[in-house]
What does this fold into?
Amino acid sequence: MTYEQIIGDLKNKVYKPVYFLWGDEPYYIDLVSSFIAGNVLSEAEQSFNQTTLYGKDSEAAQVSDLARRFPMMASHQVVVLKEAQDMKSFGELIHYVEKPQPSTLLVISYKYKKPDKRQKIFKVLEKKAVWFESKKMYDNQVPGWIAAYASKQKYNMEPKAAALLAEFLGSDLSKIVNEVEKLTVAIGKQGETITPVLVEKHIGFSKDFNQFELQDALGKRDVLKAMRIINYFAENDKKYPFPLTIISLYYFFSKLLLFHYTKDKSKQNLAATLKVNPFFVKDYEAAAKRYSAAKLVEIISLLRVYDMRSKGYEGNTTPSRELTRELIFKILHT
It folds into this structure.
């Protein structure tokens, strides 16, 4: 089931005896678990009919015994098992899952670990429980997700602002939500547009010195801007580590190379192929005119060389800050 389907059923009071929530992205697992814990029972009913356990401190027999109880002065009881991946006797829950108590909602939160479907417990859970996988989002999906989340909160967000947030926050959705909420509280009025300037002002990220702006400068072959950014990176190498710069540039130049070999150069097709917001397609079009396919192959090879050098290949001891400057100079002048 999808997140939307599960929440839709819960809002309609369609309850299932067992929910198995797993995956590398904790955000949606926590949302489902919290929704059940906060909405199935009234506050008065929760006192006698809601229990939260942790896998590391619990045994399967204890969880099963609690789940088999009948609710007191309520139609249901809720048992939430957090960090179930740490329960040593997890497999023994099979005896309960095969014949669960209909009036109980057993919510199993199983994070950061893939279920081994060769084990019988997981085969039974997939068949009998509400089976929900919360997948980690790909980096290229994050800016769109951020903009969509802001829209749900009744705020507009400029693509560059979303890209900036994605760069500095990564794909941790819980962290992203917290930062976007800070922004909306600071801005106040719904309907306003979140800009890179507001991101810099209220969250502290520089709108001028970041990987996104470095890509923009290189794409335009703006030597002055690129060297200004890279000098800033070099002087703040703990905040802007060289491996992160290498990865960011590799993705950028790989997409430019892909641009050259994409036959259908319509805006929508390019956005889908390059996995970027359609807003940025024009930037890739302009950059592709400045870098031939052959040149891009050279740059990607250069990135690999500098990646190896940064890892000490062949006894290299050049500091990362110098490697950063040297690499950008070669990209712009070779």
Q: What stands out?
A: The chain has three domains: 3-133, 139-203, 211-333. The domain at 3-133 is CATH 3.40.50.300 (Rossmann fold). The longest strand covers residues 104-111. The mean pLDDT is 93.
